[in-house]
Amino acid sequence: MKRNLTAAALSVAALLAVAKPGTDPQMDKFIDDLMGRMTLKERIGQLNLGGVGSPKVVGSAKGLDVAIKEGLVSSIGGFDPKAAEDAQRFAEDNMRVFIPMITGLDVVHGYYTTFPIPLGSSSSWNLPLLEESARVAAREASAFGINWTFAPMVDISRDPRWGRVAEGAGEDPYLGSLVAQAMVRGYQGDDLQDPQSIMACTKHLVLYGASEAGRDYNTVSMDDVTAYNYYLPTYKAAFDAGAGSGMTSFNVVNGIPSTGNRKVMTDLIRDQWGFDGFIVSDANAIAEMIEHGVGDPQTVAEMALKAGTDMDMSASLYVACLEKSVAEGRVSEKEINTACRRVLEAKYKLGLFKDPWLYYTNKDKRQETILSPENLDVARRLARESIVLLKNSDKTLPLKPAKKIAVVGPLGQERGELLGTWSYGMSADTMSTIVEALQREVGPGTEVIFSQGSNWTEAPAIYKQGGKHPSDSLLMQAVADVADADVIIATVGEPAIWSGEAHNLTNPTLAEAQMNLLKAMKATGKPVVVVLMSGRPLIIPEIDEEFNTILQAWHGGTMAPEALADILTGKEAPSAKLTSTWPRNVGQIPLYYNALRTGRPYSGFWATTKYIDSTNDPLYPFGYGLSYNDYKYENLRADKLEAKGDNDKIRVTVDVTNLGTMPGKEIVQLYINDPVAKISRPMIELKDFAKVELAPGETKQVSFDVTADKLKYYDSELNYGWDEGDFIIFVGPDSKRIEKLNVKWTK
Ligand code: NOJ
Questions:
Q1: For residue 552, what are the β-bridge partners?
Q2: Residue 6, pLDDT above cutoff 50
Q3: In the structure, what pLDDT confidence band is assigned to residue 606 with cuts at 50, 70 and 90?
Q4: Going by CA atoms, what residue is nearest to atom 10 of ligand 1?
Q5: What is the CA(283)–ligand 1 centre distance, in A?
Q6: Which of the pair, 52 or 543, is modelled with greater confidence?
Q7: Which helix or strand (DSSP H or E) is residue 705 part of?
Q8: 259 C-alpha vs ligand 1 centroid, how far in Å?
Q9: How big is the chain by its Cα radius of gyration, in Å?
Q10: Residue 316 to residues 61, 311, 378, 424, 698: CA-CA distances in angstroms?
């Protein structure tokens, strides 16, 4: 039976359900036995994750050592692997019943070797390569004892103001789900007990990416049809791929903080989706329920546990409150046991009971594991495939032989800033700058010079403005420095800290100081390549209007400079495509490609859904990205135009030809529209894609099997199915330039 998020269908029996033993009788027996030897306090202790941020503040204001001794620390999260190792060593020596710890960290886009921010790497649409990047991250992190990553972050978002768009895979549930699954597979591998695999954590449960107005932690209010069709699939996909854990979100879901929201944590995720791992709160989120206004510490701790949040990250409220709750009869021991069992099962599945030090097996190999040539190669390839060519209208790129290349802008000599949000900077010292990488790539015959040209910003309200010199004087210097250059590479955008958690912008555009630099560079009359590096889509209609050559290179990670040099020089042709819509102005937000139709479509005189001061169209649509090659699409065809029943399929084929002179990769996209359904359906929805390699002049037939599954959606009763009738299948290089085929599907 399906229960929706708003239906209040909770039975007391469900609340009191005993922990459902897993399917592994040996594990069940082991855990029964272990739990039988643990006191109530120790079982509650297994629900406490200590140490995120500072490993000392944990366990109801006790020092870490006291808390560990009393059995109040289940697992350690934190940035200091040495402290985590010491904590477990101390636990082994001092706990009454020693239970190994899980060590968690936000290994979001790499550990030492840092990959592009997830929004950037999703633009590669290269699932095997993304999986490889997560494998590398798992190998590096596990060499330091880390066996749990707080990733993947799979929140769908349609709002570039929200700083955390950087951490997700964009706006589309289909692509987002595949990326989520690739990352889970990469982190966890085939065997969670492999000391080079780490447990994934699907976050943030749920709907976090829809925070109102792009303000982090803000209210989310959403109807069920929207949630089920567009925002929930990525979480489910990550769990379906086997993610061992999940993390709650900071937002409310329909008025109830998600951390204490039983309809989400239990009815949806466990009962409907069948997830049987454990759920950790986001950092301090149980305590933040007090601030949300739903109760005092005792109440919120009980609410969160009863909702199905098994582990308390850094609020220490479970260890502070739950014994009392049991003593006073508001929480049953069974409820504690259910949560405790889930945590112990995860430890068992990670192999920690066989060997608490399993994840230190590769400690001796740390130095050869981190930043190895193979790992850096994955980073370079992924960074390359993440760089989106937005414009190249006079074919300035790839760069022609030149005597002198001038790199200007605040990113040209940076290292750590290119790593982006959720990176620990551990590779920064080993990195090249863009100037260095480009110099190496073009060779000694070409001089590459640098002139900063501007600070990040001169706007006093935004921190991280810049250095000692005001932008005006940097700009004058740059104009002089570029005087005899043949071409200007303007590396502009955001420092890492302008995106990520709690870093939202009301106007995500290029800062004025940097825009002035671009204008001054244009005024020189020299060709200017605008290289944007940012943690989010930027609103840049003026740049699009004024400049012929624009690359979006995100925060590309450890190998960002080399990857950029590869693309600039034409060592590789760009192949990335945007995974979110780029609006023309803030007023258009939220703007996304899979929007519903209205009753008065935007056309003609009565264009009532159009703004009077702006077009509705985005600056760059979802799926958009150019290459140095043009690709021709022709002969869109299907093996049949009518299909019948659940198991039928229509094979759709298109011929794609590389008209250019370079080997390239093209992302061929398939969209579907259901013109008449039980509810209004999006104009188009991505349902398949292929990234195909094409030699110069080569034509490939690219085929997709459209199955009835691809026609399914959740209706207003939240039934998942498809309706018979007409469907339109579209194929093309992005969500705008698509050709269509009309087909019919009967039951
Ligand atoms: C808060 C963030 O929302 C979450 O994504 C992260 O995993 C935790 N802090 C732990 O660092």
A1: 388, 532
A2: no
A3: low
A4: 283
A5: 6
A6: 543
A7: strand 699-707
A8: 13
A9: 26
A10: 8, 10, 39, 26, 61
pLDDT at 656 (0 to 100): 98
Residue 279 alpha carbon to ligand 1 centre in Å:
13
For residue 203 and ligand 1, the question of a CB distance below 6 A is answered with yes
Tell me, what amino acid is at 561? Answer: P
Hey, whose CA ends up nearest to atom 9 of ligand 1?
283
User: Is-contact 60 316, C-beta < 8 A?
Assistant: yes
Query: Which atom of ligand 1 lies closest to the CA of 204?
Result: 5
Burial class (CB in 10 A: 0-12, 13-18, 19+), 198: buried
State the pLDDT confidence band at 204, using cuts at 50, 70 and 90: very high
Please give the backbone phi and psi of residue 655, each rounded to the nearest 5 degrees, phi first: -95, 125
Q: Is the CB of residue 180 less than 8 Å from the CB of residue 169?
A: yes
Task: Kindly state the tokens that stand for 117.
Answer: 């921010």
281 Cβ contact partners less than 8 Å away, ≥ 6 residues apart: 247, 248, 259, 304, 309, 311, 312, 313, 315
Q: Please report the atom of ligand 1 found closest to the CA of residue 167.
A: 5
Minimum-distance ligand 1 atom for the alpha carbon of 250: 3
Q: What is the pTM of this model?
A: 0.96
Tens of pLDDT along 157-175?
A: 999 999 999 999 999 999 9
Tokens standing for 259? 């951390």
Cβ of 441 less than 6 Å from ligand 1: no
CB 52 near ligand 1, within 6 Å? yes
Tens of pLDDT along 625-680?
Answer: 999 999 999 999 999 999 999 999 999 999 999 999 999 999 999 999 999 999 99
pLDDT at 465 over 80: no
Tokens of 463: 């921190």
In the chain, how long is the greatest CA-to-CA distance? 80
Residues labelled as active-site residues: 282
